[in-house]
Amino acid sequence: MTELNPLTVAVQMDPMEGIKIGGDSTFHIMLAAQARGHRLYHYLAPDLTYREGRVLAKARPVKVQKVEGDHFAFGDWEMLDLGRDVDVVLMRQDPPFDLSYITATHLLERVQAETLVVNDPASVRNAPEKLFVLDYARFMPPTMITRDLDEVKSFLAQHGEIVVKPLYGNAGNAVFHVGQSGANLSALVELFKASWVEPFMVQAFIPGVAQGDKRIVLVDGEVAGAVNRIPGQGEIRSNLAVGGSAAKTELTERELEICEALGPELRRRGLLFVGIDVIGGEWLTEINVTSPTGIVSIDAFNGTDTGGMIWDAIDARLAARAAA
Predict the structure, then answer these.
(1) What is the domain range of residue 73?
(2) Where is the ATP-grasp domain (predicted)?
């Protein structure tokens, strides 16, 4: 759509007060929407209500600007019917990917016949980052999902060094590197089993992570750009949220091969904005579909407009729906 045909957009995200506008991808997308004349509303996932066959959201109109500390202004509360009052819903609240998150996907799935939800809520629910990626195991480092200590010990003996991380974690939280000695491995597995009811992920350690963990963004299955995230001193985690630094980068032939393999399936599933993580130029570790980030750094390094690309892709999806 253009400024002559503005959209009404409801953004399901975290509180506006807490976002860091310098690197927040959702804020970046909202700025791009506003520049096109679209009307924005903001609400939180707990603000959803199902009533008599309709999905409602208690929301406020919001205007955004790139001014630290004065980056948003709310209007008065309204009760939106997400099927009738809204053209697009952006589902952008951060994980954890828990029952609350899953419930929101079920509710938003009920408006899909009337309103475009990005990313597709059923596909988000069925494609958690560290499980969907198993469909592309040929591109992954050796990987195991388990709760069994003996299996982890065997995997460590086979691969020498490993990384242990929660299956539904985010932003680099609770990611541990275990060396050849296996020191504290038993205690670490005990901690994971006590903290989470689900299995956890174990992967062979890739030394190339010291040179960075590349975030590649795909918009409707096409590469929009990439940024290399370099771990801080003494860290293996490269996430910007835990002290990693961003650097300009290009894609390797292997990374292009990975993107070409993923693109058609992402499009088919309605996963319009996706961020994949690749270590050492060749090892795919995650496919991020819930609330991917990285576009601010990508645009800063490359002079691109990924927010605009996302809205172009949304326009194309809306046009296809209208023509169907």
Answers:
(1) 8-126
(2) 130-315
